[in-house]
Each structure stands twice: as C-alpha cells, then as structure tokens.
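User: Hello! I'm new to structural biology and keep hearing that structure can be predicted from sequence alone. Could you demonstrate with MFS transporter? Please show me the input and the output so I can see what each looks like.

Assistant: Of course. The first part below is the input, the amino acid sequence of MFS transporter. The second part is the output, the predicted structure written as tokens.
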Amino acid sequence: MFKNPVIKIEENDGLPGRKRLWAVIAASIALVMSVLDANIVNIVLPTLSHEFGTSPSTTIWVMNAYQLAITVSLLSFSSLGDIYGYRVVFLSGVALFCVTSLICALSTTFWMLTTARVLQGVGASAIASVNIAQLRMIYPRKYLGRGMGINAMVVAVSAVAGPSVASAILSFASWHWLFIINIPVAILALIMGLIFLPKREIRHAHRFDIPSAVANALTFGLLIYSMEGIAHHERIDFLMIQLFFLAIVGTYYIRRQLKLEIPLLPIDLLKIPIFTLSIITSICSFTAQMLAMVALPFFLQNTLGRSDVATGLLLTPWPVATLFTAPLAGYLVERMHAGILGCIGMLIFATGLYLLATVSSPSDMDIIWRMLVCGAGFGLFQTPNNSTIMSSAPTERSGGASGMMGTARLLGQTSGATLVALLFSFFPHQGGTSASLLLGAVFAVVAAVVSCLRLSQQMPLRRTR
C-alpha cells in the first residue's frame, strides 16, 4: 500500500552572511512570538477568571486551548513543510497568527477568547513545525550546529519569558494588549520572511497522508482532553468512552506509522536510544516548568496579594537566569556529556522548585533568588538536550526530529497545565500551589535520572552532510 517515496533534494550551502543574519532574525521573531504566547496570559488568569466569571480551573483553558491546538497539528504541518516548502508553511502560520491575535484582543466572552486561542495555536504550530528545518536552508553545513544552539536558547528563554513581557505590557495597558502587541510584530516577521527566507528548499515528493494527520489529531486531542476530564472530575462514563476511543484510534495511528516509509510520527527515530532518552527528559522538564509557571501567578496574586505587574516582575529572574546559562551550556556540551549537564541542570531546577514550594511569608528577595535557581537549572539542561535530539537524528530526518522535539515540549507543557488544574481542585488556596511546585520538583528529579541513563550512550557526532 505504501511505496518508498521519491525524494528530490536541492543542494544547499546556506545563505551568505548578511542575508543569513536577516533570515535568522525573521525566523527568530516569529518563533519568539509563538512560544511566548504559550504562557503570556499566565499572570492575567486570575483577572480573566474574575472578568468572565469563570473558575480558576476553567480559566486555564485559555492557555490549554493554545497548547492543544499546537500539539494536535504540529506533526502535520511538519509533513506539509517537507512537501510544499518550509517557507510557505512558515509564512502562512505567521499570517494566521496575526489575524487571530486581533480576534483574541477583541474577544468579549470567555469562549470567544478560547476559540480564538485555538486558531492562534494553529498559526503557532505552523511556525514551530518548520523552524529547525529552515535552519538547514539558512546556515551552511559547517555552521548548522551553531544555528541549533541559538534556536535552543531562543525557545528556552521564550518559554518562560511570557510573564515578564506581560508584566511590562500590563504596567500601562489592559490584558487586551497582550494580543494587540503581536500584530505589528507578526507583520514585521511576515515582511522580513517574504524578503529574506530562502526560496530554494529541500522538497520530498511523497503525498501528504491525510488518514495519519486525522489519527494524529484525534490521538493527541483525546489524550489531552481525557487528562483535562480527569482534572475537572468529569463523569466516569464519559471518561471511559474517551479512553476507549483513544485506545482504538491510538492503536490504528501507531500501526499505520509503522508501515510508512516517512511516517508522520517519526517512530523510527525512537530506535535511537539517546534520542528516545532525550525526548523523555524533555517531556519531564517541560511538565515541571509548566507546573510552576501556571501555579505561581495564583500564589503571588491570590495568596501574597501582588498585582499583575508585580507578579510579572517577580517571575522575571527565571528567564534572565536561563538567558545567561543557556549559552554557557552550549559551550560546556562540547566538552562534557549532555547526560551529565542534563542531570546537574535538572537537580538544580528541582532544588529551586522545592525551595519555592516550602517558602512561607516570603519577601520579594526570597522569591527572586529562588527564581534565579530555577532558571539557571533549566537553562543548563535545555540547550544541550535540544542539541542532542537534533544531532542524534540523521540529517535527512531533521524535519521529523524537529517535529518530535516540538511535540515533546508541547506535550510536557500541556500535561503540566492540566496537572495544575487537577491539583487546584484537590488542594484549595496555597495548598494547590505548593502541591504543584512539589510535583514539578518530582518531575525534574525524574528528568535528571533519565538524563543520567544517557551516560551509557556515546554522544552523537554532528552530521553536517
């Protein structure tokens, strides 16, 4: 049924220096915007809950809807990029992100905002799905590792910088401007992308597998929705029906991928031990990160009485520490095994989360230095882990590896947000925050242990052919 695809590959040695710089800036602007918006609304969740009259666990859907849309569509967009071109998919995503940001800003009801966030997530998915693959077209072979290092740092910092950026915006404007600010940024990225992104790309001549795309969306959608159902104490009969269909669709999806020469879900890459272990550590690390980033705003505002702006400022040390340690980690990974760096980073991260969970009546400085510990640990881990994922996959499977890396991040973030909703329903007030941070520390320790298991694997050589 499935024949080996004919692959058409155009030789590429990257863009010349100045064009490469502008292309990287264009891609990075869009990437920062899409990753940032995953949690830029974190610190206004209490405000939105009050304004729309929704419970805290329900209000979290404003964030989960975005994550869910990206998770169910990321691999499909990655495949479409291989077939029709990364540039087309990327620019289409930027345009959709721009339009849906305007809809978010104009939303007058909770469900209007949530629906707009779903569509915004689809645009972000198109951007993220081809990001790494575009680096292969932008950078010459010998500098590809450098590009991946920069990309890893951009993602790591953007993933936790949302509250800080939100704080700056909220210091002079309402929550609507968290979305309005995306519009000129997206237009800038779109114009620069049209001008500078490479037009000559690697194209694969296989057909887009629609059944796999549908099965992928249903599998991840049912998985996440079932997790949400558990968190919100949905009726047991509904949950059983969801899990039943998840088992059927998921089994079909996996079996179909095993028959494909170029599967939508790159199962074949999981045969590489260090790749699989790095994906697992990525899921655990982002689950821990999102447990903290969702829970902390409720703690700082509802328990300590801090304002939206103050909350964002108190969360700022986390991305600042990551910004400094991520490049350091990129330097160290050339001299140390990524398994060691990952273990050390996650243990530091777990320590920071534990210290935040157990602090009582903290001053601002008590919070700030604990945030610095968390950010330093996460930055020390993330850059080497991402580089290991990409370098352990064959060069011709960069698209699949990129999609898998993005899926791992999003699955971890969505799981973390879902777990916060579950814990908040069991532990009221500050108990929910403490439980979320302690569980985050547990996930970080698990990531550290799995990272140590990579020490039995030789670090992959970077493939630049």
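User: So the tokens describe the shape?

Assistant: Right, they're a compact way of writing down the 3D structure. Reading them back into a model, for example: The mean pLDDT is 83.
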